[in-house]
Batch of 2 targets.
Target 1
Amino acid sequence: MSRLSCLVLFWVAVLGGCSDGPPKYTITGAVTFEGSPIDDGTIIFRHMEGNGQTYSTRIEDGKYSVEAIAGPMRVEVRATREIPGEFDEPAPGVKVPKKEMHIPLIYNANSELTVDVTKDQGGVDFAL
């Protein structure tokens, strides 16, 4: 067997054994807080089994779309809003509006929200 043939066989074996992992499924939905869409935030899906993979995406105008593997997920929602009339000064002469986290911890750090991601998931809305 020639050196080139051995090299080709080696790469076929190595690359053939690689996979993209388990299939991912699209989850879409809406997120509201106290009846109003969350304008700008983040939704995080933390896998509750295996290695605890995390999938996150932005919430824009109350909507989100993310791909995740199947299984039970713990869901966290985070969003900030500007505090009227208050500013931070990250550098001399530079003022930026001060922001605060306005979603209670029960929906993020201490979240008990869960969803079971499946192949035919469809939409999952969260009314907080």
Target 2
Amino acid sequence: MAYLDKNNIIRGALGNVVFRQLDDKNVIQAKPEKLKQTKATKESATDFGTASTTAKKLTISLKSIYFNHHDNKMHTRLRSCILNIFKKNMTTSRGQKSLWMSDIETLNGFDFNLTSLFSDYLKLNIGVSMSHDHKIKIQVVSLDPKKYIKWPESIFKAELCFLMSVFGKDDLRIKNQEVFKKEISFFNSSVTALNYSSTPITSDALVIVSACLLFYKEDSLVSRIPINHKSMHPAQIIKVIKIELAT
């Protein structure tokens, strides 16, 4: 409603007209029309909300691999990546999409920190597969630390860490997580090939294998001090696998 204030200036609204005072001038503005949401826009909003919720669940569950050493836009990048996955899913109706019903290959190689890409620090491929008995296999070939690892200045100890996470296909709740680690010294002439095997997957699940490189400074008192930080923490989603077991 509109009314006269003590200075005889019209305030408020009358119909689709709004009366305002801007500095020493009386201004009349038309009310903007309300946007009417269509079924399509509501469904798109639902997919956006699902992408946001999915990204949040993943970042919480995978925090032990990236700690808080991610770039400032990591959460936004992950949500956008998941939303793009949903958009490419042309077989599922809008508003009904999920990672389980989509092509999840785009998540492979997602870096948690763009200021220190995992592939810049570990310069070889990591093999991830599922065996006939439903175990996740992680394989790294024999490597020369000086050649295949980018070492920070005056740092000679590192740890290659893998996190294998098993998520429920519908609710993305964590069903199991396993950690595999390998200590590496700059002074080793070579590191033997790594072969890790998880416990068997017993039901349909979404499996994410992620990895990070932790660097340590040697200390005579406490043995080693971690040096990774916000601008230097190579961590990545290596492989996402959708496991459907025959019933």
